[in-house]
Input
Amino acid sequence: MKRTALALISAAAMLAFAAPAAEAQTPKRGGTFTFAISAETPNYDCHGSDTYATLHFSAPFYSTLLKFNLDKYPEVTGDLAESWTVAPGLLTYTFKLHRNVAFHDGSPLTSADVKATYDRLRDPPAGVVSTRKATFADIDRIETPDPYTVVFKMKAVNAAMLEHFASPWNCIYSAKRLAEDANFPKTNVMGTGPFIFTEHVKGSHVAGKRNDKYFRQGLPYLDGFKGVFMLQAAAMLNAFQGGQVLAEFRSVSPAERDRLVQAMGDKVRIEESSWTLNLLVVFNVEKKPFDDVRVRRALNLAIDRWGGSQGLSRTSTLRSVGGVIRPGSPYATPEAELVKLPGFGKDINAARAEARRLLREAGVPNLSFTLHNRNLAQPYTPGGIYLVDQWRQIGVTAEHKQFETSPYLAAMSSGNFEVAIDFSNLFMDEPSLGLAKYVSFDKAPQNLSHAIDRELDSLFDKQVRELDMKKRIDLIKAFEKRLFDQAYQVPLLWWHRIVPTNKVVMGWKMSPSHNLGQDLAEVWLNQ
Amino acid sequence: MAVATPAVAEAASRTRNPVLAFGRAQPLGAVSLVAIVAMMFGGIFAELVAPYDPLAIDFGSMLAGPSIEHWFGTDAFGRDILSRVIYGARTALVIGFTSSFIGSTAGAIVGTASAYFGGRLDSVIQRFVDILLSFPIIVLALVVVAVLGRTLVLGIDVNLIFAIAVPILPKVARVVRAAALSVRAMPYIDAARAAGYSHLRIIVRHMAPNLVAPYIIMLTAYIAQAILLEASLSFLGLGVTEPTPAWGLMLSGNASDFFREAPWMILFPGIAISVAVFAFNLFGDAMRDWLDPKFKL
Output
């Protein structure tokens, strides 16, 4: 009897705790969700951008063919594609589209729009930049047998093609609008996403309202959203604490996380993950003396990544030492092998002695140059401060210049810099994505070093085609060795993602990439 | 026949020494002068005075409190704050002096020309000065920085200097014009005109010497404003960039993340700014009292 009573009390207690939780998981409709974006996009075009500033702005307005299932990352799931098949041999991908999809101007989405979008991605017309050109170079042709079927015929096998189709950067544009003006998406927002663009007030915010004709029934839950540009971390933290913004989806630093938790207690939700994002040091090989491999190698050797990782991880979002693939992923070079690569050894004194010798040999023992950097506090500023100090220790003077996102990106893409801090902003660990940034500039415009290296291109192509994982890993290691020997662009440190959300924000899913899950379709406010 | 005794001679000599005379007449000004000289000494000889390299990162000493090794503690990169404050004096003084000199000199030229030529030119210049004066000093500097961007020369942002100089210009122009108007009304200026001297000669040889006092007073007073403005712009991320040691910059960035755990990160740069601004303001006031005959009545 006593045992039964205890069981009943326990069950009642469990229900009492469980009931609000279950209730909290039932999405509520309505409300405007306001979140912070710590940079403002230079334009609206997903295809030519590599910065989250564009995606956090544009993603709610667009759909993609496939997307990542964040409950089972890195599995992919359909977005505009209702279903798909992959032919044996991996040379044909057939997608069936949802039939009830309309653009925000009311026109129906058809296979022609998907074809026009992917043609723009793989072979951009003159005046259009697609930083996914190398990624989709394997597409031979795109067929549209009917308005709701798209067939991609491949020139060669690409082991990760489905994941590439799920890239959040492949915003589907209207074929009609692209035919009128290939650069239409750069200055206009018109997609099929869960929200309709209402306004962009430069220097202030972007806003969208619910797309009542969104093809997924019942979504989105929100009436609208407002992304507020907050370049100053202190302002963002104050706004977050005051409830003026409810989330910051990129990341905050460890100190900022601690401040929010201390100030807000259980009103803030903190989610952390390793991050498919690293800082790179890029040497512009078209500028002297960075056309000399000895100079690049010396500057790479001078960086103590292991020491930097220990110190910087305490105060910034920089954390792990790694090669071109995120540390810990199946394709990443393990530490025991990484330390044998130039710039990754643990004997920093020996490396710096070698660096000084190389600079003397190159005739620039007292080298000085400008380090071009972005003015985002995390982690660009600490990264810049650290590099200046590291190079100072081999007698090199780097003048640190920081710029807002637009001028920073403009100078980077025009090659108007000597040495810069760049980033490899990935959304998955797939090597065909991670390595694409290092392919020759004429194949991959996102390679900002402007280097042309056919050996790297060849290794890249081989690893993309290789279906045997062990052989593929060997090819990736060979790629890394060549890359770090030549040091056109080298990783500094990989980032650690810390996302704060107010606990009223529900339905948003954490992932290792800040590029994913930003369409806000399933986000709702529990208030 | 009067014979000077050694004591009288010494007193006369002391009185003839302008620095000592200034010290006796303006003791607060003398104290501020000592602080300014100390700052200048620290800034000029920072390599000799500072205990550490201000850029040297030492993660082993991150956020360390004041100690024998680090008198002012360290920041989030383990950099010695005392060394950064000393080197920061160089940044503050270079930008403060240069921008105040450029702004005050340009203002003096504009003010003198406006007063001397008078008429329509004076009206046009003064309306332009009115427009510039209608903007708060920080807003005007922000606009100039935003429009010009950054141009680094020897590690110093020349556009920042220009941005700070611009708001100083109208204020000095207005004051110098007032002084120049009274000088222009003097008979010797009419005499010089009657003698057929050129405008340039009249302005440079006969007016300018009488405008030196207000010019020096304004120049000194606006150094403090310029230092404060540089610190404000750097704090807002529009001035000097990391890792250059600069007081305003030391108050922003990581300092705002760690000021609770490491209050020394903001305390010492804040004190440095306050002392510098206070010293230059006091010195400017003392100079005004010292040079302006009206205050000697």
Q: What stands out?
A: The first helix of chain B runs from residue 6 to 16. DSSP finds 13 helices and two strands in chain B.
